[in-house]
Give the backbone structure.
Amino acid sequence: MKHSNLIVLLAVSLCMTACGWDDGSDFEFGVWSDDGEAIAAVRHTFEYKDTVTHQKRRNYTVQVYVNDNATGSPLTVLSPELEGRATALYYMRDAGYIVLGREGEAQETVDGSQEALVAYDLIGMDGTTTSLGSGVYTTMLSCDGGQSSASLDDNLRVIPSPDGSILAKFTSSTTCTSRTESLTFLDAMSLSVIAGPFDVEVGPPNLAFPSSPWAPRELAWTVDNTFMVANWGGGAPVDFMYAQIFSVDAEPETNVLQKVSCFWPATTSSFEGKTGTYINLSNDGDISLEQPIDPSTTLYFGCD
């Protein structure tokens, strides 16, 4: 009997790791519109396979859904299906568009790093989708031949201004020994350049930590319609960072001390919205709202 049970367990384990892939989908990334009245989310489709320890997924597509009333209307499809998985979503309802960030399947490179498609799109309220930029970027950087790696999630970022009139487009190119970054301001309606590109100052890598030579970075708008770029560390006091401040009509400022809390959320559309209420989504797209356990710890757009 014990021998038979072992055979059954081995057969089940083998099937979980070797049997074919199934089709799956779910809703994720529920965010509040900038006016706090409506919700946007994404529906992912993918192939999945259960293993002994976890579920593998591959071949993602992403599609944006919206509603016109956070609690009174269902989510309806807005965009076509696009390659990849969502990495960012901003619902600028007052300005009439959505910004979607997405990332494709990662592929390992010869040095042990990983690279993938990174793309940002502007989606009008009629579903028209316009590229804001895309490319194949290093998304996991290894500087020790693949023994370890660090995530690079700021190769391309596009964040709308609080009123939705401007898009801040941030780009970064990173290797183990060098990094270059730039920031450009686009008119959100015409997508024409209205300022920049500005060079973003970058400190040297910390080669004592080959698994993560570059400090994590934060990007965010301010209530004054300026844009902040900051790296962790650099000798700033606890709960603060030294930021570079960029604006459309002034020269960049450097070494401006800012609270860490000023960087989240990055603009007026976010996961928490104006009241700190979180959006829960079922796999079928049904919405339920969750109040914060401690409102005093919720982060809201803008600094005190």
About this structure: The chain has one domain: 21-297.
